[in-house]
Amino acid sequence: MNEPNLKAFIMIQQNAIDSYKQMALEDEYDYSKEINQHQDIIDALEKQITKPVQIKNIKSQDKKYGVCPSCKRGIVGEESVYCKFCGQKLNWN
Ligand SMILES: [Zn+2]
C-alpha cells in the first residue's frame, strides 16, 4: 500500500473510532473493544509510513547512529529500512 492510500485508510479507521465515541454518548454499550481494534490497525499502518531518523554522529566510530522516531531506540551502524525494535519504516536521508 502506498503512503496516500495508507493515510486514507488511517482516516477511515479514525472516523470509525469517532463514530464509536459518538455512539457511546448515546448508548449504554461499552465500545472500548471496537475502538481498541481500530486503534491497533492505525498503529500498525502508521509504522508503514516512512519517518525520518534522527541521525547523530559518533566521533569515536565511523558509524552512523540514528534514533527511531517512534520508539526512540538507537540504531547503530546499519541503515535499515525498518526499525528492528518496533517495525517503524525509516528514512535515513
Ligand atoms: Zn523503533
Please give a handful of descriptors for the protein shown:
2 domains; 2 helices; 93 residues; elongated; alpha+beta; binds zinc ion; three-stranded antiparallel beta sheet
What report would you give on this structure?
There is one protein chain. This protein has two helices and five strands, in the order H-H-E-E-E-E-E. By secondary structure, the protein is α+β, with helices and mostly antiparallel strands. It has two domains: 3-46, no CATH class; 51-91, no CATH class. Strands 2-3-4 form a three-stranded antiparallel β-sheet, with no helix packed on it. Helix 1 (3-26) runs antiparallel to helix 2. It is elongated. The two termini are 22 Å apart. The mean pLDDT is 91. It binds zinc ion. Residues 68, 70-71, 73, 83, 85-86, 88 line the site of zinc ion.
